[in-house]
Amino acid sequence: MAGPAAKSPPDTPSDDSLFRTLIATAVDGIMVIDERGIVLVYNNACERLFQYRAKEVVGQNVKMLMPAPYRDEHDSYLDRYRRTGDARIIGIGREVRAARKDGSAFPVYLSVGAGTLNGERIFVGIVHDLSQLKAESAAREEQRAIMASIVESSNDAIISKTLDGKITSWNAGAHKMFGFTAEEALGKPIAMLFPPERFREEIDIVAKLEKGESIQHYETVRRRKDGSDFEVSLTISPLYDAAGRLAGASKTARDITERKSAQARLQQLQDELNHVARLTEISQFSTALAHELNQPLAAIMNYMNVAKRLLAPAKEGAQAKVQDALAKAGEQAQRAGQIIRRLRDFVEKRDSTRTVEDINAIAEDAIALGLVGAKSSNIKVRTRFAPDSPAVLVDRVQIQQVMVNLLRNATEAMTSSPKRELTITTAGLDGSGVEVTVADTGPGIPKEVMDRLFKPFVTTKSGGMGIGLAISHSIVEAHGGRLRMKPNDGGGTVFHFQLPAAPPTE
Ligand code: ADP
User: Hey, which of 469, 471, 488 would you mutate to test ligand 1's pocket, going by the most ligand atoms within 8 Å of its Cβ?
Assistant: First the structure.
């Protein structure tokens, strides 16, 4: 390639200056050593790589740029090559360690070519710095190792599969959950984890993945190796290959059997609690109820006695009077019967049934039941019922129970208040529903229960259970409403809740 300078076109640099520029601007380090290892050429890039200036290296043995133990072996390599022609690196190149001036070592790719200059054997080394590349791949490897250990230590089953349903990865969680070892699962169809009646799901899943969609917390049933089924929550995401093509899917499966049975237990407990709550209320009411029932029963007795007396000596006009007394006795007996019927409704444990109801009628019933004995506590009860509030779709007994709870709490709160006023209001909400308000003039909610008012077992009463408001809250929420509390202007408490209007029937 080298030709006489005279042959070059006028604006072409001489071979010499071209060579110097090339050496000086090369990104990789370029070095020339003689056969004893003495450095003849050391370019700018070498200065950056090794931190030594050219004048510190040129004329020195190249081994100064190598870390121990290579430093001490280099002379013998050159020696052997001189004697035997046995090349370890010459003509090829490989990854080696190099040493900077500050003593730190770093990885480089060194390619070495051999030639002759002025009859002397020389070696040309090209040094490519690998530090950054190595650091990046070490970081990637570390990342991969962390991910692998997360996957391995996860309690969830983490599985990947190809688009045609072959299992391609299987972690320890999957082994524990499904019972298949990695050897048993890898390469096998994912369908072996499905109960047969769920096969169709896979078709829908693949269809979604093909649209690039992932599937979040999909609750379904899968089958273990031993044939037993269990409930899982699946999260499935598409996996793409390096070219960005959909190649498969990764699935995370979480066993939710326990969560499900805990939910069922909780529901059962809540049902029991509702039942117990009603029974507790009843036992609290029993004294007052006995009092209330006594009134019609005593009246019945009185009318009966009057009738008996009137009949004995057959007084004039007795027949009409006896008829009247018996009719009145009948009315009172009916009233006693009504009280008992309401009571039975209230205690009865039954499933929630929703019917279209008039909120004012429910409120009236609740007041009759909830304020038994309130008259004796000198409480002034006021009702303000919206005349044309929309009908609501509710479980009558449950809503009645909510109101009874609120009324009982209000009357209990006011027992030692100077002013005892209870106001029950129903109001239409622009046709979208109704709002029920129970306002008292008691002392207000005690500070210590304020934040946890609607939590179960929060009470300030010695005989209290603290479940009335918790249950009321959940009943109202189950009806799509909200039970809230606010202070009453001028002292006391206001509880209010909304219920959505029943959908129109026609
Ligand atoms: P319990 O009546 O069995 O204590 P609740 O859940 O019905 O259970 O009520 C919890 C607590 O909230 C009561 O103990 C009381 O301290 C407070 N509370 C409820 N309603 C009122 C009210 N109207 N005025 C003042 N405090 C109330």
Answer: 469
Nearest to 410 by CA among 450, 449, 383, 370: 370
Domains of the chain: 19-132 (3.30.450.20), 145-255 (3.30.450.20), 260-348 (1.10.287.130), 355-500 (3.30.565.10)
Residue of 404, 409, 486 to test ligand 1 pocket, by largest number of atoms within 8 Å of CB: 409
Q: Is 282 helix (H, G, I), strand (E, B) or coil?
A: helix
pLDDT for position 3? 41
Model confidence at 35: pLDDT above 60: yes
CA of 223 to the centre of ligand 1 (A): 49
92, amino acid identity: I
Distant-in-sequence, close-in-space partners of 223: CB < 8 Å, separation ≥ 6: 192, 193, 194, 195, 229
Of the CA atoms within 13 Å of residue 33, those in its CB half-sphere come to 20
Average pLDDT value for residue range 40-50: 95
374 CB less than 6 Å from ligand 1? Answer: no
Say if residue 284's pLDDT is above 60.
no
Least Cα distance to 249 among 181, 178, 191, 164 occurs for: 164
CB–CB of 280/272 below 8 Å? no
> Is 440 close to ligand 1, i.e. is its CB under 6 Å away?
yes
DSSP string, 130-182: -HHHHHHHHHHHHHHHHHHHHHHH-SSEEEEEETTSBEEEE-HHHHHHH---H
288, pLDDT greater than 60: no
pLDDT at 481 over 70: yes
Q: Return d(Cα 405, Cα 407) in angstroms, integer.
A: 6
Q: Quick one: which atom of ligand 1 is closest to the CA of 471?
A: 6
Residue 347 reports pLDDT greater than 70: no
Q: Which residues of 179-192 are buried (b: 16+ CB within 10 A; e: fewer)?
A: ebeeeebeebebee
Question: Would you say the CB of residue 483 lies under 6 angstroms from ligand 1?
Answer: no
**Which pair of structure tokens corresponds to residue 416?**
């030692």
Q: Is 410 in the pocket of ligand 1 (CB under 6 A)?
A: yes
Q: Which of 281, 438, 459 to mutate to test the pocket of ligand 1 (most atoms within 8 A of CB)?
A: 459
- Checking if the pLDDT of 192 tops 80, the result is yes
Q: Strand pairing partners for 193?
A: none
- Strand partners for 222: 230
**Ligand 1 within 6 A of CB of 57:** no
Grade residue 4 by pLDDT with cuts at 50, 70 and 90: very low
Dihedrals phi, psi of 249, to nearest 5 degrees: -150, 150
* Ligand 1 centroid, distance to 277 Cα (angstroms): 14
Which token pair is 277? 């709550």
